[in-house]
Design brief:
A: 331 residues, MetI-like fold, B: 294 residues, 2 domains, 15 helices
């Protein structure tokens, strides 16, 4: 058996102690890390605060929608009952039935689709042409063109809409969907400048090599654009079309000025809800429970945004990743 | 060996050919700009100095000097008030939207589960925000900061404020959620700018002993200066063009009014335009001075 010198013994003990202390420190670090985070993970406390914060903001953010949805299911009795705040005593569909009739839903839905989809498609095609021209060709006055492009974004529609309206009146186009389609066809649709910039950024970031190769093979400029540039920019096209549709759908200033009286879109009908309701259910001839109340109005509002909500939840990836997909960040 | 054959079929100089095709691609837009923007703009400008009456064959335009402008600025009590309200409300909203969307973007830039879900929530309002929908929600009181705006303490406090402070604060309380709802696109822009910042910069800063707080002020904020500008301009334009904007609504209602009508509405449109440009200039200069200092 080996004899251990006393001095060595002490050294050994010291070593053990140091090891234990180190282990303890490691454990403590691990516990600390679990709660407060380390360099690579966030830790429990931080994560909980993060989720609480996000949930709280998310709730405030969605509050109007929740309020609308819940109120729209309240029966007239529930509305009058102060005890019923967040949970209706029954799911009451009557409001929706009335709102559906008041909005003249099938027909206004169709015209909303028409008024938003057709100009959007045209606007996207034209804006992509312009964006490609700006991104790929050098010509005089390009800087001026950019300035004008930004100007079209800034100029309030009020300063240009009256002469347009009068011109349409003379041409007999007032109340015709063409009055929205024509500006879109010439790159002057609703927020066209944004879409031109999206395509400008997209085409600028595409490698030129393929296009040059095709050109050397004898393809014309238009062919190069159609065969090579367009297919590689498909994500930008999709993003443009869906944003365009949403913005046209929600646009009510131009649609009211140009279309009022002949084409009724959903938002237009919603803004006349009270009047339309009284036409269908004249006050005085109906019982008290059929009077117009906020539940019916909010059902109408919900029916109004329902198509957009459906579209959003199907295509939400395209919406929330739009900025990455198109590469536009404003530089 | 192929080089000469490539070079040969180019009768036109490369640069002028480039220019020609460039013009062809943007031609449609240039025509559209002249027909649908420039000419109507000039025409509206002419109307703004005239008495305009709509007759069966077209319009009758009689030159009326500054009459419409003096009416808008000096005699009409509503217009000046609305313009001032619009300017103040925009100046209140823009910083809130900027700060809010920046915070949300930074939260969403962290690594955690359900990130996609929260992104979907914060972008949702962009999809559904239209004039009539907002009008209904405001009318039913769904957009005010829950409970806060209705509490009596707040009401009491508000009545004691001078009017130039009371109106913006009231606006803030009653439309708080609404203001936040205008942040959707802005959040996305901030988020993608944040993702572009090289993470190694933060690592280097951490090794040098910088806290997260310092890293935000010295690294994140300066690299977002361009983004701030873009977001601010986008926000101002969106708020100004929104069809529920009070000035926009007033101009629209005056267009069809018997007295003044088109001429008066045109003059107000241009004054509104000037106010919008001033707002853009103020915010631009403010953000620029901040950037230069940093």
């Amino acid at each position: 058996m080996k004899r251990i010198e006393p001095m060595n013994r002490i050294a050994l003990l010291g070593g053990h102690l140091a090891l234990a202390a180190q282990k303890l420190a490691q454990q403590k670090d691990a516990i600390r890390g679990f709660f407060l985070g380390t360099r690579t993970t966030y830790g429990l406390v931080f994560t909980i605060i993060l989720y609480l914060l996000l949930l709280a903001i998310g709730f405030v953010y969605l509050y109007p929608l929740l309020f609308m949805l819940i109120t729209s299911f309240k029966s007239p009795a529930d509305l009058l009952n102060p005890m019923v705040q967040w949970v209706p005593s029954e799911i009451y569909w009557g409001n929706y039935v009335k709102a559906f009739r008041v909005l003249d839903y099938p027909s206004t839905l169709m015209s909303s689709i028409l008024v938003s989809v057709v100009p959007s498609l045209l606007q996207t095609i034209v804006c992509s042409l312009v964006g490609y021209g700006l991104a790929r060709y050098e010509f005089r006055g390009k800087r001026l063109l950019f300035v004008l492009l930004l100007a079209t974004f800034v100029i309030p529609p009020q300063t240009t809409v009256i002469p347009q309206m009068l011109a349409y009146r003379d041409l007999g186009l007032l109340g015709n969907v063409l009055s929205l389609i024509l500006p879109a066809l010439f790159g002057q649709g609703f927020r066209s400048a944004i879409f031109v910039l999206i395509f400008y950024q997209t085409f600028l970031s595409l490698p030129k090599a393929l296009e040059e190769a095709a050109r050397l093979d004898g393809a014309s400029d238009l062919m190069v654009f159609l065969r090579i540039a367009v297919p590689t920019a498909i994500p930008s096209y999709i993003v443009s079309v869906i944003f365009s549709v949403v913005w046209y759908w929600n646009e009510t200033y131009l649609t009211v000025v140009f279309l009022e009286g002949s084409v009724q879109t959903l938002p237009m009908q919603l803004s006349k809800f009270v009047q339309a309701y009284q036409n269908l259910y004249p006050p005085g001839t109906i019982n008290i429970f059929d009077r117009l109340n906020e539940a019916v109005k909010l059902s109408g509002t919900f029916l109004n945004i329902l198509p957009l909500l459906i579209m959003y939840f199907i295509l939400q990836k395209w919406f929330v990743e739009s900025v990455e997909k198109t590469g536009i960040t404003g530089e | 060996m192929n080089l000469p054959t490539i070079l040969r079929p180019r009768p036109m100089k490369y640069r002028s050919r480039q220019a020609l095709y460039g013009y062809l691609f943007v031609l449609l837009w240039i025509i559209g700009f002249i027909v649908f923007t420039l000419v109507p703009l000039a025409e509206t400008f002419r109307y703004s100095f005239s008495d305009v009456t709509v007759v069966a064959t077209g319009v009758d335009v009689q030159f009326a000097q500054w009459k419409n402008y003096t009416r808008a600025l000096l005699t009409d009590p509503t217009f000046v008030e609305l313009i001032l309200e619009y300017v103040i409300e925009t100046l209140v909203s823009v910083p809130i939207i900027l700060i809010f969307s920046m915070i949300i973007a930074m939260l969403l830039n962290l690594r955690f589960r359900f990130r996609g879900l929260f992104r979907t929530i914060f972008f949702l309002p962009v999809v559904i925000t239209s004039g009539p929908v907002i009008r209904e929600l405001v009318a039913q009181g769904a957009t005010s900061a829950p409970q806060v705006a209705r509490s009596e303490v707040v009401m009491e406090f508000l009545t004691r404020l001078p009017p130039y402070l009371r109106n913006p604060s009231e606006y803030l309380l009653t439309s708080f959620i609404l203001i936040l709802w205008f942040s959707g696109v802005q959040i996305l822009i901030y988020l993608s700018s944040l993702q572009k910042i090289d993470p190694s910069v933060y690592e280097a800063a951490a090794i040098d002993g910088a806290s997260a707080w310092e890293a935000f002020w010295k690294l994140t904020l300066p690299s977002l200066s361009t983004t701030n500008m873009v977001v601010a301009i986008y926000t101002i334009i969106t708020l100004s063009h929104f069809s529920e904007n009070k000035v926009v609504k007033y101009i629209y209602s005056q267009t069809y009014a018997v007295q003044g009508g088109i001429g008066y509405a045109s003059a107000m449109s241009f004054l509104f335009f000037v106010a919008l440009l001033l707002l853009l200039a103020i915010v631009y200069l403010f953000l620029k001075s901040r950037t230069d200092k940093a």
